[in-house]
Specification:
This protein is of the alpha/beta class and 341 residues long. The protein has 2 domains: 3-145 and 307-340, Medium-chain alcohol dehydrogenases, catalytic domain (Quinone Oxidoreductase, Chain A, domain 1), CATH 3.90.180.10; 152-284, NAD(P)-binding Rossmann-like Domain (Rossmann fold), CATH 3.40.50.720. The chain has 11 helices and 17 strands. It has helices at 39-45, 96-99, 140-143, 146-158, 174-185, 197-205, 219-227, 242-251, 272-277, 290-301, 320-329, and strands spanning 3-8, 11-15, 27-37, 61-69, 83-86, 89-90, 110-111, 123-127, 131-133, 166-170, 189-193, 210-212, 232-237, 252-260, 281-284, 311-316, 336-340. Strand 16, helix 11 (320-329) and strand 17 (336-340) form a beta-alpha-beta unit. The protein binds zinc ion (2 copies). One zinc ion is lined by residues 38, 40, 60-61, 147-148.
Length: 341
């Protein structure tokens, strides 16, 4: 089978003489179909991912066909020939977070495609506990978008119920876009900001009507126009820049919640006096759990989210590297690049 290994930043080595792995008793053998390329993968390609060393087999958001199951796998739940995706985390099961069910923040967390081999190969095995069957009606391409949608579902769950609440999302890349869609599906009144008109246009295509570009409008003014003087109850900070985080702290309503979704390269300064004085709640979020994958599938099934506008470009597996080159050359018109096996 084929396998793509990033041997150093910006260099992928292909092999086609790798043996297809055999599933263990508790494992499922998957034939990989689609792999999404995300921001973290791009950081690895640039040598800027702090927790990844080389060589590494990338790929963590994907869809695949079930081709074989181990002796102890529930064959009714995972019929051969149907499609599935899987959670990419590898966790210890014994630390405090794992024992209370929060394996997404396991003390020894490893993620496929970063610290352990990912799915950039024709076949891959996963423990059955991590495999999520896809509805028969779902396309393989949409199946590969469940992972980023699960990130959004988990982030939104961190904020508590959103029904009837005013919500600001700062940053309209793939994750910000999906958070806005999930927040709206959960009953939130959503405004989203981004400095790119292209990304704001994509958000509109996905059904979010209220957008603001802080380059051309004063965001504080727009927030008051849209939400009134009480502004917003919840903010999702997805831009990963100090000014966006500071905006959410300055403008969120008293007692409001800010979920910090972005990965910050630098340590942003925020006004802790304002945070204390207004009893603002600042929360983190990391990846997802099973319930978030199931929530993502349910949102797709109910047609409460639109995912197709997010796929900007597709490349065959053998052109994996060209996908990265395209992303680098077209940062302002690429949302999600998809690798098709
Ligand atoms: Zn990702
Ligand atoms: Zn653990």
């Amino acid at each position: 089978m084929r396998q793509a290994t990033m041997v150093q930043p910006g260099r992928i080595q292909f092999r086609d003489d790798i043996e297809v792995p055999a599933p263990g008793d508790d494992e499922i053998l998957l034939r990989v179909s689609h792999i999404g390329v995300c921001g973290s993968d791009i950081h690895v390609n640039h040598g800027k991912h702090p927790f990844t060393s080389y060589p590494v087999i990338q790929g963590h958001e994907f869809s695949a066909e079930i081709v074989a199951v181990g002796a102890k796998v529930d064959a009714e739940k995972f019929p051969i020939g149907t499609f599935a995706t899987a959670l990419p985390q590898v966790f210890c099961g014994e630390c405090d977070p794992c024992r209370r069910g929060d394996f997404n923040i396991c003390d020894a967390l490893k993620v496929r495609g970063f610290q352990v081999p990912g799915v950039a190969q024709d076949y891959v095995t996963f423990p059955q506990d991590m495999v999520i069957p896809l509805p028969q009606t779902m396309s393989a391409e949409i199946g590969a978008l469940i992972e980023p949608l699960a990130v959004a579902v988990h982030s939104v769950s961190r904020a508590g119920p959103l029904s009837g609440k005013n919500v600001l999302v700062t940053g309209a890349g793939t994750i910000g876009n999906l958070i806005a869609q999930v927040a709206q599906a959960r009953g939130g009144n959503v405004l989203i900001s981004d400095v790119s008109d292209y990304r704001l246009e994509k958000v509109r295509e996905c059904g979010i009507a209220k957008v603001v570009n802080p380059k051309t409008s004063d965001i504080a003014d727009v927030v008051e126009q849209v939400f009134g003087p009480s502004r917003f109850d919840v903010a999702f900070e997805v831009a990963g820049v100090e000014s966006a985080l500071d905006t959410t702290v300055q403008l969120v309503a008293k007692g409001g919640t800010i979920v910090a979704v972005a990965v910050y390269g630098d340590r942003p300064k925020i006004d802790m006096a304002v945070l204390g004085d207004r009893e603002i709640v600042l929360k983190g979020t990391l990846m997802y759990k099973h319930e978030d994958y199931l929530g993502a599938i349910e949102l797709i099934r109910q047609e409460k989210v639109r995912l197709s506008p997010l796929v900007s470009v597709r490349f065959p597996f053998d052109d994996y590297m060209q996908a990265y080159e395209y992303i680098d050359q077209n940062p302002d018109k690429t949302m999600k690049a998809m690798i098709v096996l």
